[in-house]
Amino acid sequence: MTLRSRLARAVRRHRLTRALRDIDAIADALNATQGFIVVYLDEPNPQLVERLKDRTAVEVRPIQVEGSIDTALTALRSMPRPAAILDATHTGNRVNLLRQTVFALPDGAAYVAAGTTDAWTADVRRAAEPRSGEGQAAARRRQELADSIDVQPHAQGLGVVRKRGTHHFTLRHHAVEQVLSDQLGADWGEVVAHHEAYEYESRATVHMHGEPAPREKQETISVPALSLRRYSDVTCHVREVTTKGNLVLPDSFRHWQAGRLFHKRIIPATAWFGRLEDRMHQADVRHEAGEFFSFDSAFPTHFGHLTTETLSKHWGWRIAHERNPDLRVVMTHQPGKPRLPVWKADILGALGVPLDDILWVTEGESVRVDSLVAAMPQLENPHYADRGLIDTWEALYAGLGPDPSPQGRPEKIFLSRRTRTQRWCLNTPEVEAFMAGQGYTVIYPEDSSYAEQAHTVRAAKVIAGFAGSALFSMMLNPEARIVVLSSRAYVAANEYLFGSAAGHELHYFWAPPLVDQPEGGFAVEAYRSDFVFNLDEHRAELIEALA
Q: How is domain 402-546 classified at the architecture level of CATH?
C-alpha cells in the first residue's frame, strides 16, 4: 500500500470514528423500532453494537464484511429482512456495497453509511443513472436500482438512502437447503428424496444436414444431483413462482443452471435479488391447509412446456404421492384460458394425477400453503435429460390405454405446424406437398385427442416434422427414426435430449433463418425467427433420410 493510500485510509477511518460518536443521529437516521438492524464492520466493534442496541432498543446483528460484498450478501441471505442497515466500514467500495445489498431491505427502510461525505451521496446517485452504450440487461438492472432507492441529502457525516419496493433473494438449488436451515433450522422442511449426479454418453445417433445451429449438441450428458424437497409454509404465486419470507425458491426457475436466474414475472435487480412484478406482489394471499405438489409451469397452457418441464417432475410426484396419498396438486389458472385444457387433463390423468381437487392460483390470488413438495426437473433444455424420464414416458403411454385402432396406422408421418407467430416455415405448403409425395401422412397434432396422437406416433416407423412442440411426442416411440426440419437460429435441444435418453436415430436438416443468432450470443428475435426450408438444397439427403 502506498503512502497516499495509507493516508486516505486514515482519513476515512477518522471520519467514520467521528460520525459514530453521534449515536443519536445514527439511530434517528436508521429509524428502526422493531425487527433488527444489520451493521457492516471491517473488524469486530462490540462497543458500537452495544451502544446502538441500547439507543434503538432493537436487536443489532453485525456482519464483518472485510471488503467482500459476497460475504455481506451471504450473511444477509441467512436471515429475514432487516429493519435497517448501517454501513460502519471504511474500506472497500462502499457505493457498490450499497448497490448490491440495499435490496435486502423492506420498503421504506433506511440504509445509512457513516463517515461519508457529499461525494458518497453523489456517487450513489450516479450509480443509478443511465450509461450510454450499456447493454439492455445491465440498463434494466440500473433502472431497477434507480426505482428502488430514494437518496436523502447528506448530513452530519451520514449518507442516507431510503429503500423503495420489496425484493427477494433468488435462490439456486445448491444453496437452498443451507439458506433455509440458517434462517429457520430444521423447521424449513426436509429433503424427501435425492438422486446423485451421473453422466452418460448420448444414445442418440445424430446426422447433421446443412450448416447446424451454433450451439453444439454435447455427446456426454451430465445429469446433476436431483432433490425432492418438502417446504413448510410457502406462498405459491402464478406461473410456478414460489416464495418463503424474503426468498424466491429455486423451483421457480425452469432454467435453473443459467448464469443469471430468469423468470418473466420477476424483475431482476442483481444476480442475487429480484422483485415480483406488481400484480403478483399486490395479489391477495389466502391460506390453504394441507400438503401440495407443484405441477405448475411458467407456461401453464403450453403443450411443449408441459411435455418437457412439467413431465420431468413426475419422478417426484410418484414418490411424494406414495408417501402421502392425500397429496393435492397446485397449478396456475391462466387468464382467458381454460383451467385445464383437455390435452393437459389427458396427459396428467394418464399419469395418475388426481384432477378433481386441484389447488388453483390466479393472477389476483396467491395461496399460502402449509407444505409444498417440489421436484427438481429431470430435463433442462439444453443441458441434460435424466434417463429416468423413460419411466415417465412409458407410464404416460400405458396410462392412455390400448390403441383402439392398431391396424392401418401410417408408418411415416409428418407433424406440421399451423402456428405463424414464431418459427414459421414460410414455405410450409411446399414442404407438406413434398412430404406427401414421399408417402408421408401430414398431421396437425392439435386436430386429434392426445391419446390419438400418442397411438399414431407409437405406430410410426419414421417421424418427421418441424422442430418444436409438435415433435415432442417422439418420446413415446423410442424405436422411430426422427427427421427434424429446423431454423438454424432455433438452438433448443429438446429433440436431441429425448433422443439421448431414449436412443433415437436423429436427422437434422437446417435452414437459414430470416434473423440469425449473433456470433457467440443469443437473441430471442433470432430464436423465434421465421425461415424458408430450401428443398432443392436438401432434396437428395432428405429423400434418403425419409425412406
A: 3-Layer(aba) Sandwich (3.40)
